[in-house]
Specification:
Blueprint lengths: L2 E5 L6 E6 L6 H7 L6 E6 L3 H15 L4 E6 L9 H14 L8 E6 L1 H13 L6 E5 L2 H7 L4 E6 L2 E8 L4 E5 L8 H18 L1 H16 L3 H21 L15 H10 L6 H18 L5 H13 L13 H9 L10 E5 L5 E5 L3 H12 L3
Parallel strand pairs: 2-9, 3-4, 3-5, 5-6, 6-9
Antiparallel strand pairs: 1-2, 7-8, 10-11
The protein binds nicotinamide-adenine-dinucleotide (NAD) and zinc ion (ZN).
Amino acid sequence: MLTRVDVALGPRAYPVLVGSHCLEQIGTTLRANGLTHTNAFVLTNPVVAPLYFPKLEHSLTEVGFQRVVRHEIPATEEGKNWEQFSATCAALLEHFPDAGTAPLVILLGGGVVGDLGGFAAAVYRRGVPFVQVPTTLLAAVDSSVGGKVAVNFGGVKNIMGAFSQPRLVLCDLATLNTLSPREIRSGTAEIIKYGAVCCGDLFEELEAGALEKLLELEPQTLVSVVSRCVQLKASVVERDEFDKLGIRNVLNFGHTIGHALELSAHYELTHGEAISVGMVAATRIARHLGLCDASFQSRLEALLNRAQLPLAYHGHPELFEPMLKALQLDKKFRNGKNLFVLPKTPGNWEQVEDIPWPLVHETIRELISVK
Ligand SMILES: NC(=O)c1ccc[n+]([C@@H]2O[C@H](COP(=O)([O-])OP(=O)(O)OC[C@H]3O[C@@H](n4cnc5c(N)ncnc54)[C@H](O)[C@@H]3O)[C@@H](O)[C@H]2O)c1
Ligand SMILES: [Zn+2]
């Protein structure tokens, strides 16, 4: 059985289908959703391919796909670069040079495969249809939905990219069983983010024990929380698809300092771990400004602790300058003014412009200091 969440974007609307062991029937699902292609270009990586590509390929062939081409990119964030993007475009051109045989692009993997492959699909022949098949918790609850596709470039995260919505997202939660515990914890960081700033009820459910059930990949909790998060993301994206109105900024809670840390630490931390530290930083700033109280801060930090996510990255004072440099490139900062998404109470947030730099500096120093 599939749980369906619709992303209502008019002509670009699509369903997100969440289930368990549904990869085996992906061919039928594509057909049922009007995707009648007979060629597929599957982007994946060397970790995910041996685990899930054969099932995918089998299901596609069963419904009449004639050519299924597989292309792999490296299995790390460092692979999310221009060279791999270019190699992916070259593979598309090599295998599908004729406009008449343009393939359905299928992105089988985590956020790295989804972001890079979505960007390649967005620009190849000015856009070919693509489908996201997220295989990490983080990609299931966040990156596979919403149409932001990108690669890192020139030392800046996601700086080359586009808005391009998938035709369908098929999330097979059974694929999460092969994820490392570290990657599962990392995915819970984005889930805690949704609870902290988008949905107080979710925050309370996590506190009441849903977090541990998620970490154990308990099937019912997983399907209910993943589809809730997708619904929360869909409702934000529906109101601000192209990130023009400031509404979509809510999803960046923890990402301002988090991205700077992720990049400066050369991806020693996973995306979710960096975002965890970033949420702690934003919450400390919010407390200084009187936006949230001590109880919110300790509740958030307690949840992150229970997920064994880091609250700081102590022992790395040398990252201060690189982090400041990375911060200058934040897309929310304009004309030298910073802009932070800050939490208030569970499910409520505010964006604040022009926070005194000494406060930002002090917060960063504290989190990377030698203890
Ligand atoms: N586009 C968006 O809106 C958006 C939102 C959030 C994050 N992101 C991006 O997503 C990326 C992070 O995504 P991620 O956390 O999925 O990382 P990832 O894609 O690097 O995957 C993490 C690791 O898990 C492995 N893996 C994937 N699925 C597996 C499975 N089922 N079994 C075993 N191993 C598996 C991968 O090979 C990789 O080594 C970042 O680049 C971030 O910027 C994008
Ligand atoms: Zn994120």
